[in-house]
Fold these 3 entries.
Entry 1:
Amino acid sequence: MIEKVKISPHQFKLIVILVYIGSSILVIPGILASEVKQDAWISALLGILFGLLLVWLYNSLGDKFGNMTLVEYSEKILGKWIGKLISLFFVMFLFINCSTLIYIFGNFITTEILTETPIQFTNIIFIAVIIMGTRYGLETFAKASEILYPLVLVLLIMLLIFLCKDIDLKNIQPVFEYEIKHIVKGSLLYVSYSSLTLVALMMIFPAYVNNKKEAKKSFLIGTLTGGIIIFFLTFFVISVLDPNIAALNEYSTFTLAKKINVGKFLERLEAIVTLLWFITIFYKTIIYFYGIVFGLAQILKLKDYKPLTLPSGILVVIFSLIIYPNSSYANKWNSTTWVSFALTSGFFIPLLLLLVGKIRKIKNKY
């Protein structure tokens, strides 16, 4: 083990929630609205169920290989060379996702808040914070989650309370207007941005959680909690904004916050969503980045992952500037390639490892 620290199941649960919410808090409601309009909330509910099934798969892997990360038991199950290839593919998945999150962060800042700031500067500043947090180690940013999560919860409650009076149930009618295949497609989009990204946590679960049994419960509870939060945000976006307006807005939750108007003196509280998103996308990005450098260190048999943080951070920033040439390309990638890519890394690879691990265990017995 490169890392010698252990985090508590409670800290792990908070990390699961924050990673689950991640970029989803801004983008999922709009993506679902563009796919199934007023039935977006149904896709979100179905997506929560799929997410819990995924966590069951991850927990099953954790049961068999409790003291190893996904990179370590890939080699143990599939052999040295195939295992390393699978591990490299997994690290590439984390790298692409980390670059995408840096891009989303920079794009949001430069289009919604600091419109005259070059995206390069926002990306560099953000990755500098990520590198610093990663170098401090897992235990440090796990403890920080205990401070930041209550703030996230308070801000979420404030946001939803202020918007309750603006709910119009006509906006979610008629229910089930879209065929089930469209609703399922919407739920797969939901899962690809939320639950499937939790596979990055297999670089710390359960090897670096000090109680495996409680860690499994924390994984399930954290996923369910994150799912409920995204469900409520999706419901509010659809019922307050109108599904057609939500579908046209790239950051529909941010647009939703602009609707807040309490007594004509409390208005346009976009800062609530902005702060919420800063915290959650930080945790999602740092888990990806931690997985990249930690995974590479294990593949290369290094004693420490910290020397890899700076060069990896530079590569992530460079890739974040070229990953999406334009918005049209980004939309096409998200609608055609992204779900398959996420399913491969977040579902098929863990399933393959679990099945081959069981088969090899049977062969060893007989």
Entry 2:
Amino acid sequence: MSNRTVTRRHFIMSTALLAAGPAMGARAKPRVISPNEKLNIACIGVGGKGAVDVGGVSSENIVALCDVDEKQAAGTFLKFPRARRYKDFRVMLDKEHGSIDAVTVSTPDNVHAVAAMAAIELGKHVYVQKPLTHDIYEARALTKAAREYGVATHMGNQGHASLGLWQLCDYVEQGVIGPVREVYCWTDRPGRFWKQNRQRPTDTPPIPDTLAWDLWLGPAPERPYHPTYLPDEWRGWWDFGCGALGDMGCHIMDPPYTALKLGYPTSVEAEFGGGNDETYPAWSIIRFEFPARGSTPPVTMTWYDGGKPPPRPEGLSKDEVLGDSNTNGSLLVGEKGMLTCGSTADSPRLVPYGKVSTSAEPPDLPGHYQEWLIACKGGTPAGGNFDYAGPFTEMVLLGNLAIRVGKRIEFDPVEMKVTNVPEANQYIRRDYREGWTL
């Protein structure tokens, strides 16, 4: 990346700020849009899950598409032939910032924060796939910036907009299972979907003509191209993804986190098998300790992945399904009973199986993507806005931090630091490759 390219973002920011108001340094503000008007949206990362996200907001005007991999993005490019195409989101924002209202970010995890921050600082509303960021510091920085710039935000966690989540929260609030002290969350990732506990490949095959490898790396340290990293297996590498927690933790841990109003844990401890400086371990079991909240008791939430299922409750029939076919889900254990639900808060139910009746009237639920679009047009903030998604992502990523140092960690959320293992703090905010900063 040339030094001239490195300074492009600073030029974008200064130009946008000058255009936003008469005073030097005036903060860029989002354009006021009526509910009946269509947003002009630019999309960063439009293959794979990115294609789903583009489709989710396609009721608006999709004016620009950006992807570093022409092969992966080909289907989306064909569906939106009038949208202008880019490989570098910085170039796209440079050229399009005067004509766009909002931006979606559906890249690998390590690019989420730098792309989202660049859009926020231009006064653009942002939708970012889960996990919100690769690092804890990035989640805190995006949360703060979203407030300062007054933009509408949303994280790609569709279960948070579901009837199932509302039902689970209602059941807990009713006291159906009594006070909850234990929570179990589990996933079948990785293994079936990507591999972990491996070393960096030593061969250096040629870079495909359709891939801008340097741009794909983004803020991550430079390394040779290898097909083992993409399009899907980047999740298992420390430099690019956030492992099983990053993939499914934001789905599976959300129902208990929201229903029990958990906030930040006081300590996190991990057991795991394998793992190294390159990739996440083959499996992990992580215990999050949460303090009492008002009159509610402390909670221990335990996470299981990589083929390590949680213990089944005593006396439970082998035919009783927990979560989604026993492969992904969460279980809340109360003093009077237990509740389970699937990976995106679907089908909340009593254990042993039983339906829960409620007299409460369900709220109007417009849908995951629609929530964000409504917020962009001045409506109610989306449920997945960064005031929720930022702290929640920090909590999830503390599990990876415990794996990284292999010790029980105690976290001070005000100071945003680990208080008992000083060496852990180097992983709260990583160093960025030149040309990629917040």
Entry 3:
Amino acid sequence: MKVFEEKQSFRQWWLLLVAVAALGIPMAFIIDDLLIGNLENISIELLIALITLLPFIFLWKLSLHTKIDQSGITTWWEPFHFLEKKFLWKDLKEVYVRKYNPLTEYGGWGIRGLGKTRAYNVSGKQGIQLVNPKGNFLIGTQKPSEAEAVIKKYKT
């Protein structure tokens, strides 16, 4: 039995750069106040720094999981298992790996799409396209050739 498993996380260099830049402003105020001995605003500035940092911590912890096995294709976001999607082979009309444009086709990365066209993606331009009667679903992948080999094994 052959199984494909992939875990992807938001680790793009530009995301880290934005986090450092966003955190730099409140940190500059904190350092300035510490240097001049003005401690009355430190707690507010620390709170602002923490609030600024929280979205980046969230993105750092968020990961997309994909599993392809004999029963079908499953994908979910950790830690949000309630967003799990399970696609059984018998329910899929088409399954194939393709190149796509995340910005023009889905409006970016993450949990994207409306109506019958949806995507879960983290980075890159390769994805596993799933077509069923309910609509189209794309799962981004950094391992397109490995995914394609397992899909060919189970697709009937």
